[in-house]
Amino acid sequence: MALLCALLAVVGMGGYLCIFVALHLLPTGYHPVRHAVSDYGVGRYARLFRWALVLSSAGILALAAGLGFEPGTPTVTVLQLVFLFLIPVTRVGMLKFPTDLEGQRLTNSGRLHYAFAVAAFALTYSAIAGLTPELEPVGAWEPVGGFLSVLRMIALVSLVLLVIALVPRLRKVFGLFERGFLLSTNLWFLTVGICLLVEAA
């Protein structure tokens, strides 16, 4: 079971990252520094954005299940698993309530989208911060322990900077820091999934 979960986690996270890159290569009309990633959910490429969130959410669910099933992993606390399992719940909210584009009037849908996005970011970092020191010295994760720590630090710095960039005068660089957070956290999930695959094989 752990092997299947690990495989699904790698496919899900890998698929997310492929679509993430594609959205930045396609003529979306959005700027990677100025625009939030959620803006891709509004417009002609909204379907790709939705698929990215679905794949990432499925990958995180599979990873959480795999970490719980695999006896070779360190003790994963109930709280850490709860964080992981709740991330896809917030993604459902983000998909159900599209964001408002920069400069548009803030709607109820936009407010709810922001609330779910904040929850998703907080849960994501909380899970990574708790799991990294547990995974670093164990089994297949030991060789990449330093890399996981670097990704965790990048995620933390990016999260702090994107919160600072919510200040109106700094909004023009919000997208840059958000992308730093999303790339570092999803690479963290992908790396852990690959290690779980090795451990379970």
From TrEMBL:
<dbReference type="Pfam" id="PF06197">
    <property type="entry name" value="DUF998"/>
</dbReference>
<feature type="transmembrane region" description="Helical">
    <location>
        <begin position="6"/>
        <end position="27"/>
    </location>
</feature>
<feature type="transmembrane region" description="Helical">
    <location>
        <begin position="48"/>
        <end position="69"/>
    </location>
</feature>
<feature type="transmembrane region" description="Helical">
    <location>
        <begin position="180"/>
        <end position="200"/>
    </location>
</feature>
<feature type="transmembrane region" description="Helical">
    <location>
        <begin position="75"/>
        <end position="94"/>
    </location>
</feature>
<protein>
    <submittedName>
        <fullName>Uncharacterized protein DUF998</fullName>
    </submittedName>
</protein>
<keyword id="KW-1133">Transmembrane helix</keyword>
<feature type="transmembrane region" description="Helical">
    <location>
        <begin position="114"/>
        <end position="132"/>
    </location>
</feature>
<keyword id="KW-0472">Membrane</keyword>
<keyword id="KW-0812">Transmembrane</keyword>
<feature type="transmembrane region" description="Helical">
    <location>
        <begin position="144"/>
        <end position="168"/>
    </location>
</feature>
<dbReference type="InterPro" id="IPR009339">
    <property type="entry name" value="DUF998"/>
</dbReference>
